[in-house]
Design brief:
Oligomer: single chain
Number of strands: 15
Strand content: 5-15%
Shape: flat
Largest sheet: 5 strands, antiparallel
Helix content: 40-55%
Number of helices: 26
Structural class: alpha+beta
C-alpha cells in the first residue's frame, strides 16, 4: 500500500501507541516515558515488553520483537502492512484515498484465501441444506437440537465423504491447486491429484472478529482408529489456531449486563448451544488448550471470564490451566459448576436457559473453585487429610492478589476446620515467599539471556549475524550509522553519498540501509516509514539499535568515524593484472 507520508503520520498520530497496545496488553507506567507489560508475542511471567511513548515504538527485551504501532497491529492481528494501515485508519475515522489499496503479493494471496474460504463455506452449507449428500449431517444436527435459524446463523455445513468434491468445485471456480493447498482445504497425492482435507464431517466455519471466514472445524460422523473426532484447519497465511476463537464474531458484539462477561466453552457444540439459548457472549478455543493470546483477546471484550468446561476430570483440570492463563493476563475469572449434566450443552437441554443463567450468576470465583477442588480425593473428617486439604488451600490462596478475598477464605477455613486464622495466613505467606523465590530464580536465569539479546547485539546471541562475529568493530559502526539516520534523517543525502549498500557487511543491516535509501529524503522525518520494505524481524533489529544507543551521543564527527571504519573495511575491487600490463605496454 502506498500512501502519502503526511497521511501515514496522521494515522500514526491518531493512534497513540500506548492507547492501541493498552487495548491488547495490560501496561504499567515505568519512568516518565515508558510502559511495561507481558509480551503478547511470547510466553513470559516477568514483563520484558516496553512501550516508549516518547518515540512511539515498542520493544520486547525477551524475544527481540519491536516497531511502531503499525508493526504491532501487523503482528497482533496477523495482518499485512496495507491491512494494518487500513485497520488503524478505520479505528481513528480517517478515510484513505481510493488509490491506496494496492496490495503486495502476500496480501493478494491472503485475499484469495479469504475468498476461497467463503466459497467453501457456502459450498458446504449448500450441501447440508439442499443436497442428498448432506442428509447425514442434517440428521446429526437435528439430533443435537439445533434450530434451522441457528444452523443458518453459524453457516454450518457438511463435507461429503467423496474424495475431491470441494477441490473439484474450487478448481472450477478458477482457484489453483497451489492456492487450495495453501488454504489447507486440499492435499496432494503422489500422482499430483488433489483430495479434500475435510470428508464426511459436519462443518463449522471459523469466522474472525472482522466477519471473515478464516478456517474450518469438522466433526466426524463415524468413529474409528485413526479418525479424529474433530479436525481443524492447520495454520495458514490467514489463520493461527492459537490466536483465534470460535464465535468471536458474535461474542465481541454481545450486549451484556452492567459487567461485561465472556463465557469460555470447551467446544463448538457447547458454544452454539449456549448461543442458541440466548447467550451470545460465548467462545471456544480451536482444538488447543487456552493460550495467552486467546485470553488477551477475551480481555479486550470482557471484564470477567466464566470458564464453562465439561464437569469431568479432564474438563476440570483444563479449567485449572485456564485459570492460570487468565491470571497471567490479569483477567478475573469464574468457573461454572455444572451439576446434573456432563456439559453446558446437556444442561441447557435438560434444564433450560433460565437455570443456566442462574448457574452463571452463582459461578464461584476462580479462587473459590480451587478451594473446593482441593478436597478432591480427601476425607476432611480425617485429621491428616484435613491438614493436606488446608495445605492445598494455602497454595491456591497464595496465587491471589486480592487481600479481601484471601482474608474471606482464610476466616472461612479457620471457622470450618478449627485452625487459627493466623496460622493459615502464615502458611499462605510462606507459600508466596517460595513462589517469589522461584520467580526470582527464573527471572535471574532468564533475564540475563533476555538482556543479552537486546543490548549485546554484536554477539552471536544478538541476531545470529556472521558479520558481527567476523568484525565486531565494523558491525558496531554500521549500527551507529543506522541510528544516526534515525535521529537525523535530514542528513540522509550526506550519508548515502558516502556509504553504498554493498559497504554494509551485515545482510540484515544492509536490508535496513537499502530500505532507508528507498524511503528517506531530506523532507522525510520518520525512519519507521520504511517498515513497508522490511520484515518484522528487521524492524525489531532497528528498534533494538535505537534503544541500545539511547544514551550514546552520535554527532557528525562520530558519524564520520563510523563511515571511515566501514569504508576502510570494504574490500577493494580485485586488480586486473592484464589491463595493467597492457597499459604499461602502451606507454612503452
Amino acid at each position: 500500500m502506498s500512501i502519502p507520508e503526511s497521511l501515514f503520520l496522521q494515522i500514526k498520530e491518531s493512534n497513540r501507541i500506548e492507547d492501541v497496545i493498552g487495548s491488547y496488553v495490560q501496561l504499567k507506567k515505568s519512568g516518565s516515558s515508558n510502559y511495561v507489560g507481558l509480551c503478547p508475542f511470547h510466553s513470559e511471567k516477568t514483563p520484558s515488553f516496553s512501550v516508549n511513548i516518547k518515540r512511539q515504538f515498542f520493544y520486547c527485551f525477551g524475544c527481540g520483537v519491536g516497531g511502531d504501532v503499525f508493526t504491532f497491529i501487523r503482528l497482533q492481528e496477523n495482518m499485512e502492512y496495507g491491512e494494518a494501515i487500513r485497520f488503524l485508519a478505520e479505528r481513528s475515522g480517517i478515510k484513505l484515498p481510493s488509490n491506496s489499496h494496492e496490495s503486495p503479493d502476500k496480501e493478494r494471496r491472503r485475499i484469495r484465501i479469504y475468498e476461497m474460504n467463503r466459497a467453501a463455506a457456502r459450498f458446504y452449507n449448500n450441501i447440508l441444506a439442499n443436497d442428498k449428500m448432506g442428509e447425514r449431517g442434517r440428521l446429526y444436527l437435528a439430533q443435537r437440537e439445533l434450530s434451522p435459524a441457528t444452523v443458518t446463523k453459524y453457516g454450518l455445513g457438511f463435507a461429503p465423504g467423496e474424495g475431491s468434491v470441494l477441490s473439484d468445485f474450487l478448481l472450477s471456480q478458477g482457484y489453483t491447486a497451489v492456492e487450495l493447498i495453501q488454504a489447507n482445504l486440499s492435499r496432494q497425492r503422489n500422482n499430483g491429484t488433489l483430495y479434500d482435507v475435510f470428508r464426511d464431517r459436519v462443518m463449522f466455519p471459523i469466522i474472525d472478529k472482522n466477519k471473515r471466514v478464516i478456517a474450518f472445524g469438522g466433526r466426524a460422523l463415524e468413529s474409528g482408529v485413526g479418525i479424529p473426532k474433530y479436525l481443524n484447519t492447520s495454520d495458514t497465511p490467514v489463520f493461527n489456531k492459537k490466536s483465534n476463537l470460535f464465535s468471536i464474531n458474535f461474542a465481541k458484539a454481545a450486549k451484556g449486563s452492567e459487567k461485561r462477561q465472556m463465557i469460555l466453552a470447551e467446544g463448538y457444540m457447547d458454544v452454539i448451544s449456549i448461543n442458541q439459548a440466548g447467550f451470545e457472549n460465548v467462545v471456544a478455543s480451536l482444538g488447543t488448550s487456552l493460550t495467552a493470546e486467546q485470553a488477551r483477546m477475551i480481555s479486550r471484550y470482557a471484564d470477567e471470564a466464566v470458564i464453562a468446561y465439561d464437569g469431568d476430570e479432564a474438563g476440570q483440570n483444563a479449567a485449572v490451566r485456564a485459570i492460570d492463563i487468565f491470571n497471567e493476563v490479569g483477567l478475573p475469572s469464574r468457573v461454572l459448576k455444572v451439576e446434573g449434566a456432563k456439559d453446558p450443552d446437556e444442561f441447557i437441554k435438560k434444564f433450560g436457559e433460565v437455570r443456566f443463567k442462574l448457574l452463571l450468576d452463582k459461578a464461584p470465583t476462580w479462587l473459590g473453585f480451587l478451594i473446593e477442588k482441593a478436597k478432591a480425593g480427601l476425607d476432611t473428617d480425617d485429621d491428616n487429610d484435613k491438614v493436606e486439604y488446608l495445605r492445598r488451600c494455602c497454595t491456591a490462596l497464595a496465587k491471589s492478589n486480592d487481600p479481601l478475598e484471601v482474608n474471606y477464605f482464610v476466616n472461612r477455613l479457620a471457622g470450618e476446620y478449627g485452625f487459627a486464622a493466623a496460622a493459615i495466613s502464615e502458611q499462605v505467606e510462606l507459600v508466596k515467599t517460595g513462589m517469589r523465590g522461584e520467580e526470582q530464580r527464573s527471572k535471574a536465569s532468564g533475564q540475563t539471556a533476555d538482556w543479552q539479546k537486546a543490548v549485546n547485539f554484536i554477539s552471536e546471541k544478538a541476531f545470529s549475524d556472521p558479520a558481527a562475529r567476523h568484525n565486531s568493530g565494523r558491525y558496531k559502526a554500521e549500527c551507529g550509522i543506522l541510528v544516526y539516520l534515525y535521529r537525523h534523517p535530514e542528513d540522509c543525502a550526506y550519508v548515502f553519498e558516502r556509504i553504498a549498500e554493498d559497504d554494509i557487511s551485515s545482510p540484515q543491516l544492509r536490508n535496513i540501509y537499502r530500505a532507508a535509501k528507498k524511503v528517506l529524503t531530506k523532507e522525510s522525518s520518520d525512519l519507521m516509514l520504511l517498515q513497508s520494505e522490511l520484515e518484522t524481524e528487521e524492524m525489531g533489529i532497528l528498534v533494538s539499535l535505537v534503544e541500545e544507543y539511547d544514551r550514546i551521543e552520535i554527532n557528525k564527527d562520530i558519524l564520520n568515524e563510523y563511515i571511515n571504519k566501514v569504508r576502510s573495511g570494504t574490500p577493494k575491487p580485485a586488480l586486473d593484472l592484464n589491463a595493467i600490463a597492457a597499459r604499461k605496454r602502451g606507454k612503452n
